[in-house]
Write a structure and sequence with these properties.
A hairpin with a 5-residue loop joins strand 1 and strand 2. 52% of the residues lie in helices and 19% in strands. The protein has an 8-stranded mixed β-barrel, surrounded by 5 helices. It is built from 12 helices and 9 strands. The protein is α/β, with parallel strands linked by helices. The chain binds ligand C2E and magnesium ion (3 copies). The site of one magnesium ion has 5 residues, from strand 6. Ligand C2E binds next to strand 2, helix 2 and strand 6.
């Protein structure tokens, strides 16, 4: 009896797997054609605030895929596919161009754009950025490229060459999702980055957990001693703000202060700020 039930479970599991694979193949095909045209990709912008929690100092560009039948698809569902198929390079160009053109209107604010390790390992990445900046007339000094900590830890020569070339152009580099990648502090000292973006995971426990606070205090102190700026990601509650301010964090990002929104909405928010 138990054996039969077990078999049934595997059959259901198998069907489920098959459905997942099917879904994935469809997305892959759709993604390829969407990237040929490019107009299905919508860039949203989340405001980044100074530690006063009031002044907007920048925006982070976050892509969405407006699928004609499936509706809005989150990046976590299609970025991994784009990375595997190599199409992330094209997607990265589309997002960067769209974001630079939009942010041109937001005087003086920093534009942060995410890039995956695959993009930054392509030999052409830095020159693609340079050409896009030139074409859109967007100043390099206002652009920041976000790279995850794990990506930079696995860094190959091509990635390092790109990072150095970008910094030489005046583009800043931020280490995204910082804290979850197990980088040693010794290694961190040698990385050519300008900002640490502290992962939401460590921000979540603030206010309730003193170990979380101690950890953040150490990170922020270290960042300061190296001349790096810090941004806390995923701030959702007011009590987190109090702790981050006390610890000397530089910038704040999170649903409490502003969610990702379309260009016209963030434009309005910025002009009212
Ligand atoms: P990320 O760069 O770490 O971006 C932060 C994510 O956290 C965003 O999710 C944002 O909407 C979300 N978030 C911000 N504040 C809060 C908060 O207070 N609470 C909660 N629960 N979430 C918050 P999103 O937009 O779904 O993006 C997910 C990830 O996809 C990004 O993580 C980034 O790694 C990647 N991504 C997004 N756009 C691009 C892109 O254009 N290129 C590449 N390569 N990756 C991208
Ligand atoms: Mg990011
Ligand atoms: Mg992050
Ligand atoms: Mg993330």
């Amino acid at each position: 009896h138990a054996k039969a039930a077990g078999k049934g479970r595997y059959a259901i599991f198998g069907e489920h797997m098959e459905a997942l694979l099917q879904e994935r193949r469809l997305l892959e095909t759709d993604l390829r054609s969407a990237l040929n045209v490019g107009d299905q990709f919508l860039v949203l912008y989340q405001p980044v605030f100074a530690i006063d929690g009031v002044t907007i100092v920048g925006v982070e560009a976050l892509v969405r895929w407006r699928h004609p039948e499936k509706g809005m698809i989150a990046p976590d569902r299609f970025i991994p596919i784009a990375e595997e198929t190599g199409e992330i390079t094209r997607l990265g160009e589309i997002v960067l161009e769209q974001a630079c053109l939009a942010a041109l209107l937001w005087d003086g604010l920093v534009l942060s754009v995410n890039a995956s390790a695959i993009e930054l390992s392509g030999p052409e990445y830095a020159s693609m950025v340079q050409q896009t900046l030139k074409r859109t007339c967007f100043p390099a000094e206002r652009l920041e490229i976000e790279l995850t900590e794990t990506a930079l830890m696995k860094s190959d020569d091509a990635l390092m060459t790109n990072v150095n070339a970008l910094r030489a152009m005046g583009v800043r580099i931020a280490l995204d999702d910082f804290g979850i990648g197990y980088s040693s502090l010794a290694r961190l000292q040698k990385l050519p980055v300008d900002r640490l973006k502290i992962d939401k995971l460590f921000v979540d426990d603030l206010g309730a957990d003193s170990a979380a606070e101690e950890f953040l205090a150490t990170i922020i102190k270290l960042a300061r001693s190296k001349g790096l700026s810090t941004t806390a990601e995923g701030m959702e509650r007011a009590e987190q703000l109090d702790v981050l301010r006390r610890l000397g964090c530089d910038c704040l990002q999170g649903y409490l202060l502003g969610k990702p929104m379309p260009a016209d909405a963030i434009g309005q928010l910025i002009s009212d700020n």
